[in-house]
TrEMBL record:
SMART domains: Lactamase_B. InterPro entries: ComA-like_MBL, Competence_DNA_uptake, Metallo-B-lactamas, RibonucZ/Hydroxyglut_hydro. This is ComEC/Rec2 family competence protein. The lineage of its organism: Bacteria, Bacillati, Bacillota, Clostridia, Eubacteriales. Coiled coil: none annotated. It comes from Clostridium ganghwense. Residues 49-241 form the Metallo-beta-lactamase domain. CDD domains: ComA-like_MBL-fold.
Length: 284
């Protein structure tokens, strides 16, 4: 009897070991799938006060803006082994969005380079243009209705700017909606209420699970009509700790709280990476 008990005990331990072992294998292989195919990754890169977002899907890379410092975004992209950016989008030519762009242009192979038709007199802008000229890369003017090709299961559509000229440079901001199967993301640059109203008037589908708030959470953006139409579950604010502008503004935070939107902030959370499998979005 004793030896039978011993036999049962050994059998139980063996079954447990096999279970644990195969359990390990399957969780390992899941993580391999996660980091390569059938997922979209959206990196809201911590660039201090500014914007820079990397979207990776179907082995393609799309970069929106490049922060204010020359090296931050370049180092981040290199850390991920990136050599080619299939698309680069400049939302608008303010330093906190294009400061690092000259370095990006000089360090990566770029497929298409989109920017709104707006020229500025700053060094960042001049450096960006010089770098583009050096590699003979042309700017494709970004305007509403334009679609980008990021491969299967992806739809990328520019929904702003909807006009040729604005008093406020922020309103030239390229606004991009990215859909991956059943999940949707909206990227708004620094578009203010005027541009938001134009988007609503044009009737574009802007519903999104994740909204990158306009203008670093400033009260000049995220009007209640716009927020209601986007109806996000998650909001991301890209801003610097203790910035001079008081971003994000209290009014914006209250609107998000009232709608029970989950909020991530680069000033508090650092770089935020969201992963979509096409149906579910998770924070890495
Ligand atoms: Zn900005």
């Amino acid at each position: 009897m004793d030896s039978f008990k011993r036999f049962l005990c050994i059998l139980a331990i063996s079954v447990l070991c096999i279970f644990l072992f195969t359990g390990c294998i399957s969780s390992k292989s899941t993580s391999i799938i996660t980091s390569s195919k059938d997922k979209m990754l959206v990196h809201y890169i911590d660039v201090g006060q500014g914007d820079s977002i990397l979207i990776q899907v179907n082995n393609k890379n799309l970069l929106i803006d490049a922060g204010s410092k020359s090296s931050t975004v370049t180092s981040y992209l290199k850390k991920f082994g990136i050599k080619t950016l299939d698309y680069v989008i400049v939302t608008h030519p303010h330093d906190d969005h294009i400061g690092g762009m000259s370095s990006v242009i000089s360090n990566f192979n770029i497929g298409h380079f989109y920017a709104p038709k707006k020229i500025t007199n700053t060094n960042s802008f001049k450096n960006m243009v010089v770098s583009l000229n050096k590699i003979k890369l042309q700017i494709t003017p970004a305007k509403a209705g334009e679609k980008l090709d990021m491969g299967k299961n992806i739809k990328c559509i520019i929904v702003a700017p909807n006009n040729d000229s604005y008093k406020e440079t922020n309103n030239y901001s390229v606004v991009l909606r990215v859909s991956y199967i059943n999940t949707n993301f909206l990227f708004t640059g620094d578009a203010e209420t005027l541009s938001e109203e134009e988007i609503l008037k044009k009737g574009y589908n802007i519903k999104a699970d994740v909204l990158k708030l306009g203008h670093h959470g400033s009260n000049t953006s995220t009007s209640i009509n716009f927020l209601n139409e986007v109806n996000p579950k998650v909001a991301v604010i890209s801003c610097g700790k203790g910035n001079d502008y008081g971003h994000p503004h209290k009014e914006t935070l209250t609107k998000l709280k009232d709608k029970n939107v989950i909020l991530y902030r680069t000033d508090l959370d650092g770089t935020i990476i969201l992963e979509s499998d096409g149906n579910k979005i998770t924070k890495r």
